[in-house]
Amino acid sequence: MTLTIEPGVVVKAMTTDTALVMSGNGQVISQGTSAAPIIFTSIQDDSVAGDTNADSSASAPAPGDWIGLTFNSGGTTSVLDFVTVRYGGSAACGATCGNITLSFTPNAVLNRITVENCTQGIVVGTASSLTLTNSTLQNCNQGVFIANTGPLAISTTTFANTTQPVVAQNA
Fold first, then answer.
1. Which of 43, 45, 33, 34 has its CA nearest to residue 5?
2. DSSP-assigned letter for residue 21
């Protein structure tokens, strides 16, 4: 099964236990463009697609507003290109949850992505591999958290206002 997300789509998560999860032998193909990136964010983020929770300025987005994108046991390569992921990493998913989390994912290709406003940007877990290029991780405590993982390639990627750009544990 393939989930294809078209350029310009904005997905807003409503609660701290909300996630987009791909499991089984499926893949996600999210290929935005520079003019029409794909954005995953909090319902409280009024900077894209307006005030969708209709509370005017009563709420503001914050890291941990939702879980994030989670890839579990993917059978084929998932691709994210010109994608922005904001305000994920809710504690509802456990101790190691990022804006993007890979677990038992044979291959994820992330190119020209922006991961921002989070506790952990990208978590690369057990038996996962990651190719990260031409990307920006900013305003996160940890940019990339690596635990018990497979092949990993990071190139031409900027870490800005990130306390720990890359953290490896049992890798």
1. 33
2. E
Kindly report the backbone phi and psi dihedral angles of residue 13, in degrees, each rounded to the nearest multiple of 5, phi listed first: -90, 140
Q: Which two tokens stand for residue 116?
A: 């921002």
pLDDT (tens digit per residue) in 121-158? 999 887 788 899 999 999 999 999 988 777 889 999 99
Determine if residue 8 is left, alpha or beta; phi over 0 gives left, psi from -120 to 50 gives alpha, anything else beta: left
> Residue type at 59?
S
And the tokens for 78? 């998932």
As a whole number of Å, the end-to-end CA separation of the chain is: 30
Question: What is the rounded distance in angstroms from the CA atom of residue 60 to the CA atom of residue 42?
Answer: 9
Question: What six digits make up the tokens of 21?
Answer: 């999860």
Higher-pLDDT residue of 94, 60: 60
pLDDT digits (tens, 9 = 90+) for 55-90: 888 889 999 999 999 888 666 788 899 999 999 988
Give 115's strand partners. 85, 137
Q: Cα–Cα distance between 130 and 35 in angstroms, integer? A: 25
Query: Are 89 and 110 spatial neighbours (Cβ–Cβ below 8 Å)?
Result: no
**Rounded Cα distance, 24 and 26, in Å:** 6
